[in-house]
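Cross-posting from the modeling subforum.

Setting up a comparison between two proteins and wanted a second pair of eyes on the formatting. Protein 1 (sequence, then structure tokens):
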Amino acid sequence: MVQIILSSLDDTDCFARLLTETLSLHPKVKTLLLNGDLGSGKTTLTRYMVLSLPGGSESEVASPSFTLCNHYPTEPPILHCDLYRCAGAAPEELFEALDNPKFLNIIEWSTFLSKQDRPEEYLDIALKACEEGRLLTLQAYGPCAEALLRHLRGQWPMRKADAEGPAVPHS
């Protein structure tokens, strides 16, 4: 597990770029599960990830709260889902994308995705508002996701906030 504080939108942009670069180096990890309260930054992180990929500037990133799934013509293509209103069953297009190794899947409110429907390799990112900005808690599932998280942690400029607290970016 890694904790990161994003103090600004610039930090979010930098982190999103690093995350998409790191995902390209670990192609077996194709799914990000995003969890957090309303307004915690799930869609903002997704927006910056989309913008950091080829084709992203042609995409209008919005929360898929009502459409359930948005497709973005990036390279790799992104399926962005919001499962908040899917307590019973996730949309079929999500399962099709999870089975397609070409897609990067970003799933908001993934607590509504059953454990048996999750892929073997994924990164779980919990977002939470805090005094310093946004606290991200990243947890890897699967050996490739663990390697991705180690790589990400090694590339993100960190310093200890204090002996007990999470790592935060260098100012």
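Protein 2 (same layout):
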Amino acid sequence: MASHSEFGAKTDAKDVFAAFPTAVEGKVVLVTGVSPNGLGAELARSLATQKPKLLILTGRSSSKVEAVAGDISTPGVEIRIVLFDISSFGSIATAVEEINGLAVPSIDLVFNNAGVMNIPERRLSADGFEYHLATNYLGLALFTNGILPKVKKSDAGRIVNVVSNGYALSPFRFSDYNFDGAGDLPEDEQPSKQAMEAFGIPFGLGYIPPVAYGQSKTAAMLYTRELADKLKGTNATALSVMPGVIETDLWREMPPETVKTILSSLPSKSASQGIATMLVAALDPRLKESGGAYLDDCQVADVQPFAKDKAKAEKLWQLSERLTGKTFTV
């Protein structure tokens, strides 16, 4: 349970900082997926006002990350930029080496914010994985595992993984995680007909962009729960966060008129309101006891059984090690 029951959908970053006024000061903070019109930029600018010791900003595009860094003028805040493609295992390995080589003993807060959504046609990453899966899950897990030793050295390490209520569209498809269409899909791995109907998406078992996105977010949530379980007894933990519906570049793969219709029909948030739940997950000390939880509108919320199943989380952890070729040591 979060410390502030009065927090909700309208809570913004200033409200959270007011509740935890010294929680960022002097800390080393890492934010992935930083670009001017995204939540990563809002996070970076807002966190800088709280006087962290070091802000590590990452992204694929040097011009975009540097544009955000250039907007930050808080005296005394050191900024380091690390460029990498989170969909690429090789690029992640290079970034992990660079980050682990920084002259700081620990990383206190990690915001895994990088992601893609609703890619119209099935696309594979450089390593041969469906692009949502590669970016929103496999890359996230591989990167997090790589920098985990630094996070565990923090007095209160916190990993915040940005997910979505779109997870409800699909369980993890162990039988066809890459959407190759090979064989029959077991019923418990099929997309949710009820959720697809609610989102206005025709049911199908092949590649459907929101379903691929949903599967990747389910995977991130299962990973977060298993990671938090394995971190018990340490100073670190991990949580999943649904920021809300916000107009950012995350919608870039969809036609502008479709995006406009969606945003006008759903309760939306400002960027500051969008990062509020992320900040609560990172800063609220009471949530140390809620490791692995999913937060929405600044509060811990329940999820579908398939997104919190311990056996599935363990199975996914083992599969992820095989797919990435790395042992996820905690």
